[in-house]
Design a protein that fits this description.
39% helix, Protein-Tyrosine Phosphatase, Chain A, UDP-N-acetylmuramoyl-L-alanine:D-glutamate ligase, six-stranded mixed beta sheet, alpha/beta, globular
Length: 445
Amino acid sequence: MQKVKTVAEAVAFIHSRQRFKKTPSFKRLTALLAALGHPERASRFIHVTGTNGKGSTSKMIAQLLRQAGLTVGLFSSPYIMRFNERIQDNAGPISDNDLLAVMQTIEPIVADLDQSEELGPTEFEIVTAAMFLYFKWRPVDVVVLEVGIGGTWDSTEIIPDKLISVITTVSLDHMRILGSTISAIASQKAGIIQSQRPVVVGALPKEALEVVESKAHALQAPLYVLGTDFQASQPHQVDLVNQYFDFQNPGLKLTDIRLALQGNYQVENAAIAIQTVLLVAKPLGIDITAAMIRQALGQVTWPGRFETLLDSPKQTIIDGAHNQAGIAALAKTLAGPYANQKVGIIFAALEDKNVHAMLSTLMATLPNSKLYVVPFQAPSKRQAVQLVDVQAWFKETTGIHFAKSWQSAYQALLADPSISTIVLTGSLYFISAVRQSLLEHQEKK
């Protein structure tokens, strides 16, 4: 008997699954994919990992390839507004009808696998299988495949072959899963490197780059490093809405590329995306021109990534800076244009993040800001940081304020005449809730 009859039931079924299992293994996913006829073998892949920037970089890679005339799949996480966003093609997110059909195919197989204690798939394994099946049903020229967590044991690493691997950044995050040092985390992310396939990496810390270089050398995988093999620079003063950058590698030099995505950290992500697309152009049978690059990057958008959501009554920006490195990048972006202004910041995060370091970075980099810490409703099986803990950490600090909700903090900042810009940041789950609420409020006006 079919248990999943609606899209809501399909999404609820996915979210009801266990998030992690103790032993990293591909046994569960392999069993599920085998029962589905191995849909992962039907597509070609560009594999993208990184502590930060992998979502934005993946979106830019997809946009560049679409500009060149390809049909491109995109798999990312988490979603901002609707679950369907996680699986996209040129037409946009997977339709409700297709999502329901995919999950109605998968759910009975999962029920059978659940009879074995070791074969019942996890939430992300099911979502990954759903993506593979959808792109088998709706074929694309290539899938830009974003890793969930890490690389070595991530479900997306099940793919048999890939065109290229991309590592955007490496910093401390998901330490309970990936390891407590930069080298350990880099080792996990380097797990996506495939023998004799090119690898593009961002400006990694020295200890991370050494790990990646060693793995690439061992697998005879050509390595392209930002700052060494290709360059990105911002020679001009930039505002928060319009930013331009230069790109250069041995075969191409472009100046004054307009980037629609805000936040100066997006320049490195854009350079990684350009280098990646140039390397896969030949195996995909396409030419990448300067005009294509300019057109694609001048129009690409990615919700929740330094996104100006409202211009009035005050400029309101949301940014899913969900870990310490993300917060550092956000603070650096804000510090330039707002060095002499008072910015209002509303922050909420999950309890498994280094919240003390994140808040310390904001206060140190933006001393003129007015910073609120607020609670939020975390997704099932996750826990938001408790305000009482933050209050205990910063009891001697006068620069941090606390509110019972982001809405009350937002109203307080709107009423403060010294604040011209408000930034809501932290967990992507928090940003998702804020975005939906503010846009719904705007629509009702």
